[in-house]
Amino acid sequence: MSLKKYISIFKISFAQEFAYRLNFIMWRVRNVMQILLLFFLWTTVFSDPSRVVFGYDRAKMLTYVFGILVVKALVLSARAVDVPGEISRGDIINLLLKPVNFFKYWLTRDLSSKALNFIFSAFEIVILFLILKPEIYLQTDLLLLAGFFLSLVFAILAFFALLMITSFVPFWSPESGWGAQFLMVVIVTEFLSGGLFPLDILPGAVQKILYLTPFPYLIFFPIQVYLGKITGDALVGGFLIASFWVTLLWLVMGWVWRKGLLVYRAEGR
Questions:
Q1: How many CB atoms lie within 10 A of CB 174?
Q2: Any idea which UniProt keywords this protein has (predicted)?
Q3: CA distance 189 to 76
């Protein structure tokens, strides 16, 4: 019964995505424009097909660029961006009175958003591939492909927790929720997760600091696994760090949620 309940939530949320067509279209257009900008930037850098820069050849760098489109669709797209508004308006009380788990509810809605965004990203990649005809690196190692999909699971769970933690800001400051999310999603996450460029082009000292944060494991790490640039002990170590961050972030998310409920006054109601 519980599973059927969340399947129904998934279906309803998936259908509701089309109610926000303009927002969805603008999000997709923004992502495609970003990919086009990166594509033309790196094709200029790799004007000589045999050139290797930062350990990437032309095919792997362009695969990284198109990989951003797919991974962002699966990791960064989320319906949980609505949580701050729900808290500020007091609408969250409606959910608290229903027989559903708050986090499972929003994770299910997130998954519906990711499913739709993935479908569109796949369509966009096919169109861009037919137009641009880029050189693409195809990974054939089944173990690395399995690692890639596992890394996506870690990334989805970690980003969900990060987004939720920032979404709870309105418990204490009702007018600040959107600003906190914009800072987290648009600025911090995209830049530090490798959503604009591969993080291994940065100086070594900066990379070491970044690898101690959860951000590289959202976009950069999964794509690196797919490209075969992280294997063996480094791959196992990466999974251990990613699992550590998922566990820690979910614990913090639960703690902040409980603290927020203690001060929640449903002022919008």
A1: 17
A2: Membrane, Transmembrane, Transmembrane helix
A3: 9
Beta bridge partners of 56: 53
How many angstroms separate the CA atoms of 153 and 222, rounded? 10
Token representation of residue 118: 């993935």
* Tokens representing residue 200 in the block: 């291994």
Which pLDDT does position 181 carry in this prediction?
Answer: 64
pLDDT at residue 176, as a whole number:
64
Residue 73 to residue 60: CA distance in whole angstroms: 20
Report the alpha-carbon distance of residue 122 to residue 74 in Å, rounded. Answer: 11
Which residue in 60, 51, 69, 86 sits closest to 225, CA to CA? 60
Read off the amino acid at residue 59: A
Nearest one of 73, 42, 78 to 197, comparing CA atoms: 42
Q: What is the pLDDT of residues 42-56, one digit of tens each?
A: 999 888 878 888 889
DSSP β-bridge partners for residue 53: 56
Q: Which residues of the chain have pLDDT under 70?
A: 1, 20, 176-186, 266-269
Mark 71-107 as b/e (b = at least 16 C-beta within 10 Å): bbbbbbbbbbbbbbbbbbeeebeeeeeeebeebebbb
pLDDT of residue 93: 87
DSSP characters for 7-23? HHHHHHHHHHGGGGHHH
| Residue extents of the structural domains in the chain | 2-263
Helix ranges, the chain (H): 2-16, 21-45, 58-75, 83-89, 92-96, 102-132, 142-167, 177-182, 190-192, 204-210, 220-227, 232-263
